[in-house]
């Protein structure tokens, strides 16, 4: 049913909880997993002398999150590959990656509301649910 799954890993406890479900589901479905981490460069610091180093560090951490997760999944017998992306809208990058990679399911953890209007889900979860063109599996 699900042959290609996109796992949006934001390095939070909720994402770690989602990883447990993802690993089980991917093994059962014999699905390939694409592990995605989206990082945002803090543009307000763009004019500071250390901005380039800051962005490099963010990207390095993103690659570590992805490679650790891919390694975990591969040790569990799941075919996995990693993608790191920079973007100002995490949800938009998740949705575009899902479309470009032709995934059949998006998995992500929810970390809670950041606005009163998003009572049960955070901003990213809400937007991915609203605009994704495939099923979305959310783990609180």
Give the neighbour order of strands across the main sheet. Answer: 3-2-1-4-5
- Shape descriptor reads globular
Strand content: 15-25%
SSE string, helices as H and strands as E: EHEHEHEHE
CATH superfamily: HUPs
C-alpha end-to-end distance: 23 Å
Count of DSSP helices?
4
Q: What is the CATH domain class?
A: Alpha Beta
List the helices and strands and how they pair.
Elements (H helix, E strand, L loop, with lengths): L3 E5 L4 H17 L2 E8 L11 H25 L4 E7 L3 H11 L4 E5 L13 H9 L4 E4 L1
Throw out a few tags for this protein.
140 residues; alpha/beta; Rossmann fold; five-stranded parallel beta sheet; 21% strand
Structure notes:
The chain is an alpha/beta fold and 140 residues long. It has a single domain (4-139), classed as HUPs (Rossmann fold), CATH 3.40.50. The chain is 44% helix and 21% strand. The chain has helices at residues 13-29, 51-75, 90-100, 123-131, and strands spanning 4-8, 32-39, 80-86, 105-109, 136-139. A five-stranded parallel β-sheet has the order 3-2-1-4-5, sandwiched between helices. Strand 1 (4-8), helix 1 and strand 2 (32-39) form a beta-alpha-beta unit. The longest helix has 25 residues, at 51-75.
